[in-house]
Amino acid sequence: MRRYLVLCLSLCSIPALAADVPGSQDLEALPRYPRAEIVDYHEAVNEERRYPLDGVRRISGQLRMSREVLAEGRVRALTYRLPDEHAPRDVLEQARAQLEQAGAQLLFWCEGRDCGSSSLFANAIFGNAKLYGPEERQSYLLLRLAEPQQDSLLALYGITRGNRRSYLHAEQLDAATPLPLILPAPATLLRLLRQSEQLALPKLGEPDEPWAELLANTLLLDRTLRVSLNGSTAAAWRTALEQRGVRSSRLETGETEGSGLLLRMLR
Known about the structure:
Layout lengths: L1 H11 L24 E16 L4 E3 L2 E3 L3 E14 L6 H14 L3 E7 L6 H8 L12 E7 L7 E9 L5 E10 L10 H11 L1 E4 L7 H12 L5 E5 L3 H10 L7 E3 L7 E6 L1
Helix pairs in contact: 4-5, 5-6
């Protein structure tokens, strides 16, 4: 009897395992957050999706965003309920770091009211009313996975609802046809630069028009920001940025060795 009582108390102290929706499964690219539970799951062989690269708003009854990715292919979408003590914003930050370390390219990142309407994300973008909540408590990421999955997009949306329940929605689209060049949003590159005080772009060689325009627009979002450009093509990139309106006093040429381009914030 005593052994039975000890065993019972021991088992009762172990947290109950999450009860996932039958037939659901995690995405290979996204490790499950501890003690998260799958509460919704959807899979389709061929569907069209539109993913914002800007805040989402409704104007004159129409869904509006300045940039978006429109793609069609296999879709796997799942919604996790997160443990109450963990904020979705922290979970997304952890996921972003892991995915970028694995070679994924961050295309867009927003938090709070910068993302726009939570109602539109929940209903028009992801089609899941569970994701509607206060706009200041939302976060959204869109990433392009690394080779050999470069034609796959991963969208992550986190929200804490008014009832304090927190959810993470993860959606992977494997495009039926090769995806074109998709450049990150300037505000996203500026956010990354400010957060870590540097921005590594290892695949950039000599300046090209799309990336030169993007980096110039990034730096023009904050005209007080000064950076050093590092890498074997740093001098050429400095010239390209100056030609696109970035003041020369904001730019320095740093180390001139190494591949790619590295921007470092200057104090």
